[in-house]
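Troubleshooting: if your tokenizer reports a length mismatch, compare your output against this known-good record of 293 residues.
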Amino acid sequence: MTNDEWDILRPRHWPKNVFVLAGVMFSQKLFGSGSQALLAAGQALGALVCFCLVSSAVYICNDLVDREADRLHPRKSQRPIASGRVTQKQALRMMVLCLLGSLIGSLFIERFLAMLILVYFGLMVLYSMCLKRVMILDCIVIAVGFCLRAVAGAVAVDVMISAWLVICTFALCLFLSFGKRRSEIEQLTGDAQAYRETLAGYTPELLAHMMNVTSGLAIVCFLLYATDAETKLKFGNDHLAYTMPLVLFCIFRFSALIQTGTYSGPVQVFWADRPFQVGLFLWVAACLVILYG
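Known-good structure output:
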């Protein structure tokens, strides 16, 4: 595999798939006996790898569809397919290999996981072909894709996932999607519509409002999950609510950075902004202590 073929897999975007691990983390299965904990961890990590592969297949499909539009973008014009360093035939071969690898791997874990991966891939192909041209629906589809990741992670370790946690994931990812659109408008200025059709309907004020609504919804749903009677019965406490300062810091930090156009999306914030990284790490650490300490 050449460096350019590796680049079209977008490994820097694989951290998006950590939502798959939410199921095993909040199920407390890592707290069981040695063999049970290892099995749960193995199944969760296997599901994570499967979603990394299928998401790479989706990225390749999207880059093939968007290759002409990407050439108008100051940064995306350097992508291997848009720049011509990887041919369409090479890209299609890599896409098929990633999809097959994901499906075959998921069948060894749980058959229903393979079905969810097919649903995810089909939805994302529809997004690349037409749904991304519909304002607001484009961001909703992306958020649903992240919810499928969370549900798939729960299926892989055979646990039920809280409805509050699914709604929180949906609202949070909708917030991140609107933030990405806000950053694109800031960075592309007058060329925004030429790159992405839906950007013609978005305005900075509208996106700021949508970010406020969705971030607020995500925070409320997380609090409802943390203080829910079922959650308290399961964990023996409602201490997850006390991680709220870290949640607020990460959300507000992302919002402040993305609305200035400093970063082009959540992935860039995740990899480049040290305060955000520290806040996210502390939140995960606090959750692990509360759930397993």
